[in-house]
Automatic annotation (TrEMBL):
Protein name: Chorismate dehydratase
Keywords for the protein's UniProt record, in alphabetical order: Lyase, Menaquinone biosynthesis
Known EC number: 4.2.1.151
Function of the protein: Catalyzes the dehydration of chorismate into 3-[(1-carboxyvinyl)oxy]benzoate, a step in the biosynthesis of menaquinone (MK, vitamin K2).
Protein's UniProt keywords contain Lyase: yes
Superkingdom assignment: Bacteria
Name of the top EC class for this enzyme: lyase
Pfam families for the chain: VitK2_biosynth
PANTHER family from the UniProt entry: CHORISMATE DEHYDRATASE (PTHR37690)
Reactions listed under catalytic activity: chorismate = 3-[(1-carboxyvinyl)-oxy]benzoate + H2O
Amino acid sequence: MEKIKISAVSYTNTKPFIYGIQHSPVLEQIDLSLDIPSDCAKKLIENQVDVGLIPVAAIPFVPNAEIISSFCIGSVGAVNSVFIFSDVAVNEIKTVKLDPQSRTSNNLAKVLLKNHFKVEVAFTTDQTANTDAIVLIGDRTFGRKEDFNFVCDMGEEWMKFTGLPFMYAAWVANKPLHESFLADFDKALALGIQNIPTVIEQLPPITGIDISDYLHDKLNFELTVEKIKAKDLFLKYIAEL
Ligand SMILES: C=C(O[C@@H]1C=C(C(=O)O)C=C[C@H]1O)C(=O)O
């Protein structure tokens, strides 16, 4: 039987899901690759894979996109790995360098700066540019908060702006898949979330972040009705940018 090709995020935030997949029988049905989020999206959009843990901002670009799991990468308030870092206060930001690995958080920065902070800002993807602020996500943010005068946690600011939690990435398919596979896959993800203490024990030493606090209390993996509401609202704001 042909394996189901899956692209998942290569960051620490996805380790519980990987643990669950690797400790479940569904592993035998899967060809798993770990990629930066922007590549997870690219692979799913270009049909190089059947399922991706992809940035929610990329969902509208996936033909026949369907969210297939009751789990996601989310937060209820602060997430501690999705930031706008700057040395000037947010109302003084004029230029922002975007993170080439991100699709969701780059758009979240645009949405929040326009609608929440109400500042007009120029964005660049040129990584050599000198800007007032940068968007940075994932493991590369660990230990970086001390390097900047101003630290804006976008999960926290989204909550202040909308009163809602946030969904950064979702498990999305680009074609119909067997019900039995989907049930087994979701069970595998659930197993990973139930075993976060073991996942933490097995991680190599990580500095610059309290990894237990991050995986237990900042990240929030259940795909709730409120998070779907947040995703729909976020996509609406993106369409209005
Ligand atoms: C919480 C995070 O969520 C992520 C942010 C993403 C994005 O900005 O496109 C995509 C996938 C997730 O890894 C993070 O990476 O820190």
